[in-house]
Specification:
By secondary structure, the protein is an alpha/beta fold. 48% of the residues lie in helices and 14% in strands.
Length: 284
């Protein structure tokens, strides 16, 4: 399971869509072809059918539109939570730019060396960030530096290192257990999963200009990932029962603080969490 808990933990999730620029380059499509037509052409060439109009595209052919981190920072006996949302301002073209999202995340990981936590992050979320860094020419020296020996520093490219925790690797198995989703694993633990939106909806939302809604959905998933990591760390013995309750209360209080500060959409997540805890018979 999880071998240790770092003083700084980054539970993250990202959202991506087919990248029209990559589509034009790979398939020699006209420059004047509108983005939405390019995207549909990319799906068509990936084998789109009436039953599956939006087939999976290789992540290198996609562009990141949102990445959200929920940070837990332990220092001198004190724990602080911080929600890091990229883009920070959906109305600012410079912040919305994919290069800004990629550079901000990789430079932050390189600088702070957190324990990075995701769900299918090793094969998907973290992989696409690295792929897109290469595609965009974003340098991330501190993130990419690999120690000669495991005990000499963090290696975010190595499987099995404490600095890179993929919850899907922990919970998914083989055969019928191999396809477990974040939604399924979270909900059975009394944690909110998908709340009316799924990853399949993101491309359509983007084409309709609904970036704010994508970011909100991404924030939900970051909280879900964090709470599942917290439960996993408790199961692994890194928190006592009382410490685990305290950690959960801190998440609830932070959600309430964010809601009071203008992030009213998070009320949906908080209400669902309370409902699921009641159904599961859980209490702080």
């Amino acid at each position: 399971m999880i071998k240790s808990v770092f003083d700084r933990v980054w539970a993250f999730d990202s959202e991506w869509i087919p990248d029209p620029v990559s589509g034009r380059m790979l398939y020699h499509l006209p420059e004047e072809m509108p983005d939405h037509e390019v995207i549909h052409e990319m799906w068509k060439r990936a084998g789109a059918t009436e039953e599956e109009p939006m087939p999976f595209l290789r992540t290198a052919m996609c562009r990141l539109v949102s990445l959200v981190v929920l940070e837990r920072h332990y220092r001198a006996g004190d724990v602080r939570l911080r929600l890091i949302t990229l883009p920070e301002d959906t109305g600012n073209p410079e912040r919305v730019a994919e290069s800004h999202i990629v550079r901000s995340f990789l430079s932050g990981v390189g600088k702070y060396q957190p324990q990075v936590v995701g769900f299918n992050s090793i094969n998907a979320d973290l992989k696409i960030v690295v792929q897109r860094a290469a595609a965009l020419g974003v340098q991330a020296k501190e993130f990419c530096t690999r120690p000669n020996k495991p005990w000499e520093g963090n290696d975010y490219f190595a499987r099995g290192q404490d600095c890179n925790v993929d919850l899907m690797d922990i919970y998914a198995g083989f055969g019928r257990t191999s396809g477990i989703s974040l939604n399924e694993m979270a909900v059975v633990c009394g944690i909110p999963g998908k709340l009316g939106t799924s990853g399949d909806d993101v491309a359509g939302m983007w084409m309709r200009g609904e970036l704010d809604a994508i970011v909100h959905y991404n924030q939900f998933d970051a909280f879900t990932t964090y709470l599942l990591w917290l439960r996993t760390a408790y199961v692994a013995g890194h928190f006592t029962a009382e410490q685990y309750k305290t950690e959960q209360r801190m998440v609830q209080e932070y959600l309430e603080q964010l809601i009071a500060g203008g992030s009213e959409h998070l009320q949906i997540f908080l209400d669902e969490w309370r409902k699921l805890r009641t159904l599961r018979g859980l209490d702080f």
